[in-house]
Amino acid sequence: MALIPSPKPYSLQIHKLPQYTYIDALRWLPHISTFTRHILLATYDADSSTSSLQTLISSPSQTIPSVALQASVSAPSRIASLKVSPSQLAPSKPLIAAATFSGSVLFYSADLINESLNFEFSVPDKGFHSGAVSGIDLSENGSECVSVGEDGRVNLVSLSGKRDFRRVFDSSGLVSYSSVKWASPVEFVTGAFGFGLHWWDQRKAGGPVALFKNNWTGGIASGIVHSIDIHPSRKHTCLAGGSSGIVVAWDIRWPKQPVMLSGVGAGDAANSLVESDIWEVQYDNYTHSSKIINSSSSRVLPAMICSEDGILAVIEQGEEPVELLAEPCAINSFDIDRQNPSDVICSLEWESIAILTRP
């Protein structure tokens, strides 16, 4: 692990809460009250080899926050990816999509008022993906779910009407996909093995409309794109994090000129905060930069990352990274509260979650 010491410009409130099961993914759920928060967990119990979805309730008004189990449902297979789409018509009943290692995608609704998790439907394993579904994302309006897998298949699941799926692309195993993110109602970006990024437009059949595959590490390492994010106001640019500490911004307007923010072999072009896998990357709306406000849209917005070597940090183009949390174990997943970006949750490999509050 290679760290660049960076001072913390603000004090953090950090609280760690044991959960006694392995946490594969976690997400904030929408607020329905100023006095309570809800957290969604995808858990795995190694002793019984069982998986489940759980909702926890927390009170942010407490000096030392605690969480209590609100609802729990068993999952038929271990969960590989977890997404939440707030319902515009019923904010207290968000839609949940969970991709599994067995090759299916499960859909649930969380009733936050009546404290229940309700199974809605699943996409059958047969013909959908061969092997694990490695990445999913829900469209902004909650009408479609895009899924990708190591089998090279890209599928779209309709969440209304017959609730069936259609195949967008099948590489027959020549390309293995690892992550996906919607860019617009008709566009999405996929991440692949070999640090590949593909931009898709449903209005144009036959495959991706733009490709990016480059030797980001100068031959030092190769790997996978684990996570992608796209900012709501800058849908032409995607942020990708993957192996060897790689974090790169890819602007579809200049597809051959990516901006490397972190990673092995970055040299003077970026501050290499970590050398291990970046498990998740998200734009950080909490971090405001005068340089960004006063600059053109070509400047990359601040981003938060979590890594295999236990780092949760904020990185910004041309700036020293800011380390928020350093743990002796992997930080597998994190989420920034959409409604209150000062609040962050993350899951630690040692069967616990951490809640961070930025002033």
TrEMBL record:
Keyword Repeat included in the entry's annotation: yes
Main location: nucleus
Entry keyword annotation includes Nucleus: yes
Keywords recorded for this protein, A-Z: Nucleus, Repeat, WD repeat
Protein origin, superkingdom: Eukaryota
Listed SUPFAM superfamilies: WD40 repeat-like
Name of protein: Nuclear pore complex protein NUP43
